[in-house]
Amino acid sequence: QVQLVESGGGLVPAGGSLTLSCAATIIDFSLYGTRWYHQAPGKQRVLVASIDLNSTVAYADSVKDRFVISRDNVKNSLYLQMSSLKPEDTGVYFCNVYRNRVFWGQGTQVTVSS
């Protein structure tokens, strides 16, 4: 049974920082690609960062130079370091792992106050 559990969300003032974590209960985590998605209130879920099994990273333009995605294949964990946060970064952040199938976590709320 695959399980993804996000943590680290919270309330932060604009310009602040947060680090999100995603703990994966999954066999062979290192063989999966991984992603972070953001769902702003009333909007669709969008991809913000990805890191594949070769540790190749990619970012949405909206978070480039502010967010850093990383993974620890020993701890079966995925991270998202967020800095210079803006009110528009508010929403629920979901981690996602994919190989032959896609698995989602339940999300963690981030609120950035102006």
How are the secondary structure elements laid out?
Elements: E1 3-7, E2 10-13, E3 18-25, E4 33-39, E5 45-51, E6 57-59, E7 67-72, E8 77-82, E9 91-98, E10 102-104, E11 108-113
Parallel strand pairs: 2-11
Antiparallel strand pairs: 1-3, 3-8, 4-5, 4-9, 5-6, 7-8, 9-10, 9-11
Tell me about this structure.
With 114 residues, this protein is mainly β. 0% of the residues lie in helices and 55% in strands. It is built from no helices and 11 strands. It has strands at residues 3-7, 10-13, 18-25, 33-39, 45-51, 57-59, 67-72, 77-82, 91-98, 102-104, 108-113. Strands 2, 4, 5, 6, 9, 10 and 11 form a 7-stranded mixed beta sheet that branches. A 4-stranded antiparallel beta sheet has the order 1-3-8-7, with no helix packed on it. A hairpin with a 4-residue loop joins β7 and β8 (77-82). It is globular. The protein starts with a strand and ends with a strand.
What share of the residues lie within helices?
A: under 10%
DSSP strand count: 11
Largest sheet: 7 strands, mixed
Shape descriptor: globular
Total DSSP helices: 0
Protein structure class: mainly beta
Unreliable stretches (pLDDT < 50, length at least 5) are: none
Mean pLDDT: 97
Give the ordered list of helices and strands. Answer: EEEEEEEEEEE
Radius of gyration over C-alpha positions, nearest whole angstrom: 13 Å
As a percent range, the share of strand residues is over 45%
Distance between the termini: 40 Å
